[in-house]
Amino acid sequence: MQVLVSKENRQIKMARKLQEKKHRDQKGLFLIEGQRAVQELFIRPDLIETLFVSDNLMEVYEGDVQRLHIKQAYQVKADLMKYLCATETPQGIAAIARKPVWSPDKLLQPDSTVFFLDRIADPGNLGTIIRTAWALGIGVLLLSSNSTDPFSPKAVRASMGGIVKIPVYQAVSTSMIRELKEKGYQVLAADSKGNKLLYDINFNSGKSLIIFGSEAHGMSGDYSYMVDAWVKIPLQQEADSLNIAVAHGIFSSEIRRQRLYG
């Protein structure tokens, strides 16, 4: 495995650039770091462009490099790993990965559940939602064009590898939501003042598209006319709202409960 020692190395410079959205968009690449996240990436070796391993972890990961036939794998010292990573205390392994490309067929399954996140702003919330969707097997995420980037370092870290496991579609338009409704999706809006309780909704009766509005401003009025039901989580009167990632987790948990137990 080649040893890198300079910040001027082309691969090191690329890793640094990928902390900026414009470079991620231009190259179709993103940076993923941390032992758990990179191990999940190992399940998708086709996405691995470049792997960086700290010299103190070489024995741990050398077998994976050979087994997965990773051609661009480099040994780096701790100070260089810290330079190329976005975290203050890197875990000694990072990778440049290609953004996964998902087939639209994921949206056409007869019992699918799709979450549409309208103008979600916090990358930590988005990463947590991706991680929860993967963990509970509640499948597909759509993001409006003005949502935060799911491939930003903070979102990727919070997803804990989920970013390469579940379909995430970016820059989804109003017309696409309308098209899904025309194809049989019941459109639900998560709303703390909704007229239906989450636990009264049957998620086993067909396809569902659930809209979550932005943390600060709620759902855009562009989608209101498509909503079949406004759905709330029953809260104590003193608590008028929940963090969007927590609310998504509660919805996902109820959907999984219904799928498992009817």
Please provide a written account of the structure.
- With 262 residues, the protein is of the alpha/beta class.
- It has two domains: 2-98, 60s Ribosomal Protein L30, Chain: A (2-Layer Sandwich), CATH 3.30.1330.30; 104-261, 3-Layer(aba) Sandwich (Alpha/beta knot), CATH 3.40.1280.
- It has nine helices and twelve strands.
- It has helices at 10-17, 21-27, 35-41, 58-67, 78-84, 123-136, 153-159, 174-182, 244-261, and strands at residues 2-4, 29-33, 48-54, 73-76, 93-98, 113-117, 140-144, 168-172, 186-190, 196-197, 208-212, 229-232.
- The strands form two sheets. Strands 8-7-6-11-9-12-10 form a seven-stranded parallel beta sheet, sandwiched between helices. A five-stranded mixed beta sheet has the order 1-4-3-5-2, with helices on both faces.
- Helix 6 (123-136) runs parallel beside helix 7 (153-159) and helix 6 packs parallel to helix 9.
The main β sheet shows up as: 7 strands, parallel
β-strand percent reads 15-25%
Give the mean pLDDT: 93
What is the CATH class name of the largest domain? Alpha Beta
Could you estimate the helical fraction of the residues in percent? 25-40%
Name the shape in a single word: elongated
Which superfamily, in CATH terms, is the homologous superfamily of the largest domain? SPOUT methyltransferase, trefoil knot domain
How would you spell out the order of helices and strands?
EHHEHEHEHEEHEHEHEEEEH
What is the helix tally?
A: 9
CATH topology heading of the largest domain: Alpha/beta knot
**CATH architecture annotation of the largest domain:** 3-Layer(aba) Sandwich
End-to-end C-alpha gap = 52 Å
Structural class: alpha/beta
Whole-number radius of gyration?
A: 20 Å
What is the count of distinct domains?
A: 2
Total beta-strand segments: 12
Runs in which pLDDT lies below 50 for 5 or more consecutive residues are none
Query: Largest sheet, order of strands side by side?
Result: 8-7-6-11-9-12-10
